Amino acid sequence: MTDRTPRLVATDLDGTLLDRSGRVSSRTRAVLEQLEERGVPVVFVTGRPIRWMEHLWEAVGGHGLAICSNGAVVYDVATQTVQRALTINPDTALEVARRLRMQLPGTQFALEQSSGFAREERFDSRDKEPLEVVIGPLEQILADDVVKLLAFHPEIAPETFWPKVEELVGDLVTVTWSSTHAMLEMSAHGVTKASTLERICVDLGVAAEEVVAFGDMPNDVAMLQWAGTSYAMANAHPAAVAVAGESAPSHEDDGVAAVLSELFDLGPMANP
After folding, report:
1. Taking the alpha carbons of 113, 203, 231, 66 in that order, is the dihedral positive or negative?
2. pLDDT tens readout for residues 1-33
3. Superfamily grouping for domain 8-85+192-270
4. What's the CA gap between 16 and 43, in Å, rounded?
5. CA-based radius of gyration for the chain
6. Rounded-to-integer distance, Cα 136 and Cα 195, Å
7. In what order do the strands lie in the sheet with 211-215?
8. Are the CB atoms for 150 and 139 separated by under 8 Å?
9. Which helix (H) or strand (E) holds 84?
10. Bridge-partner residues for 260, per DSSP?
């Protein structure tokens, strides 16, 4: 870990900044507010689509930038607008589906779009869906604004499904996994949390070694590797632990807040 105080904080949400119920604790919010007062940018870097973020904007301060959908979307929280969307070419999505259906029969697909959500009939995300969801064969629901292609298999364990899908379509898309079941997330080739965070840092004039990052799942690995200082949560997946330089307390113990309080020498309001 560097002795220099970081200039930018990048943090995952679920399993990292948020508690088990998906909320921002009072201690964590106090830390975020103190960083805002000091002018330290905090970038929220998540696999969540924008539609899952609405209730969190106020809790995290209602300012700054969020990287959503594993790097595919840069969202300006203050103006509630999409700054950048990196989409998957429809022909590429169809080729991904063709390969997976051939080698892994039973694979079902869904689409996170900048305009909404769509899925095949037997796709089971185990997550709450929006009220308006388009259901049909992939070939019919596919659109030009797909930021994340989701693949689900009801019978294959995620630890098996993930490397197999990577082997089959890793030349076409970037494959990540952040669920507890066999649902994989695919972004346009080369798009990760790290690649989009790097773009933002270049715009802000912040170097990688000046960034501290926090994460807990395989979709955080690239970001943890890229940042100059990185922490895997105590509850993290082994893949995240293996690449992080440091360890933070669990998300249930306000791990991100505890580390940031120490790194930035924050006042007593940031501590329990």
Report:
1. negative
2. 445 799 999 999 999 999 998 899 999 999 999
3. HAD superfamily/HAD-like (3.40.50.1000)
4. 13
5. 18
6. 32
7. 81-85, 73-76, 65-68, 42-45, 8-11, 211-215, 229-233, 246-248
8. no
9. strand 81-85
10. none
Pinpoint the alpha helices (H) of the chain.
26-37, 90-103, 138-141, 158-169, 193-204, 221-226, 238-243, 255-263
pLDDT in tens, 34-44: 998 999 999 99
Among left, alpha and beta (phi > 0; psi -120 to 50; other), residue 265 is: left
Q: Which of 166, 171, 213 is nearest to 193 (CA)?
A: 213
Q: Calculate the CA dihedral of residues 245, 249, 250, 254 and round it to 10 degrees.
A: -120
CA 179 to the chain's CA centroid: 11
The span from the CA of 63 to the CA of 82, in Å, is 14
Q: Where are the domains of the chain?
A: 8-85+192-270, 90-188
Pairing of the two strands 133-135 and 108-113:
unpaired
Helix (H) or strand (E) holding 230: strand 229-233
The residue assigned the tokens 């904007």 is 57
Is the separation of the CB atoms in 151 and 109 below 8 Å? Answer: yes
Give me the residue label for tokens 């080729």.
Answer: 95
The domains spanning 8-85+192-270 and 90-188 adopt the same CATH topology: no
State both tokens at 33. 């507010």
> Which one, of 200, 190, 88, lies nearest residue 147 by Cα?
88
Domain 90-188 has CATH 1.20.120.140: no
- Taking the C-alpha atoms of residue 93 and residue 149, their distance in angstroms, rounded to an integer, is 7
pTM over 0.90: no
pLDDT > 70: percent of the chain = 92
Report residue 82 as tokens: 């999409």
Q: Give the tokens for residue 264.
A: 């930035």
